[in-house]
Amino acid sequence: MMTESSPNIRLWFMDWYGWMLDHDPLKDTPTRTPFQPGRLPGLSAVVPAPLSFPCSPVMEKRVSMPRPFPELEMQELSNNRVAFFVPRSGTYLRSVPVPTPYVDYTGSTPLGWESFLPLTLNMLRGLSLIMTPGALRIENGTGDLLTAPSFEEEMTLRFGDRTFPLFLNPAALSQLGQLAAGQSASLSVTWENGAEPDILKAQRQTE
């Protein structure tokens, strides 16, 4: 289901609340949808490899529709996050959760709603495995199993009493996404900004 053959880098984007930047083919507009394991969102960006900032992403819809995107500049933010600047208007793409969820191009400053976490295909696969019950067995350094996670705001998962910022752990997500059934890996995981990494053991369960 998730395949990628482009020599460039294709990226999908998570918003501040753990939803995915997506495309509404009925309205032909960007939208936001909950993360769903194993599903590729309908909107992605192709950027030159190696990735450097700022850059001009080529936004692509899975369902081809005629409405063009405005010219966008992808800018680097802290902790592996990005913002989409619209040079024509001097504003930013934003993903707004309340009162009615929507996506538009009117953000004035790249704060929470204007920040996005870029995810490669392997990172999406890794996150899908984490969020699929029974797909992974993850142990901490003392052999305790991590509980099933839930999404929190600021692109973060919660495992019981521990938070797992996705934006601090792109390498771990990518590593998980490359595991074949039955394979194990040691993951270097950062639980909070500035903290020393922990080593977890992850095993992908047989299907």
Word description of this protein:
The strands form five sheets. The chain has a four-stranded antiparallel sheet with strand order 5-4-1-10. The chain has a four-stranded antiparallel sheet with strand order 6-7-8-9, with no helix packed on it. The relative contact order is 0.15. It has helices at 121-131, 170-177; strands spanning 9-14, 19-24, 29-34, 43-47, 58-61, 73-76, 82-86, 91-96, 102-107, 117-119, 136-139, 150-152, 156-159, 162-165, 184-189, 198-204. β2 (19-24) and β3 form a beta hairpin. The protein has two helices and 16 strands. α1 packs across α2 (170-177). It is mainly beta. 9% of the residues lie in helices and 38% in strands. The mean pLDDT is 91.
How are the strands of the biggest sheet laid out side by side? 5-4-1-10
What's the SSE pattern? EEEEEEEEEEHEEEEHEE
Total of helices = 2
Question: Structural class, judged by helices and strands?
Answer: mainly beta
Low-confidence stretches: none
C-alpha Rg (nearest Å): 17 Å
Care to give the gist of this entry?
The chain is mainly beta and 207 residues long. The protein is built from 2 helices and 16 strands.
Write the topology of this structure.
Elements: E1 9-14, E2 19-24, E3 29-34, E4 43-47, E5 58-61, E6 73-76, E7 82-86, E8 91-96, E9 102-107, E10 117-119, H1 121-131, E11 136-139, E12 150-152, E13 156-159, E14 162-165, H2 170-177, E15 184-189, E16 198-204
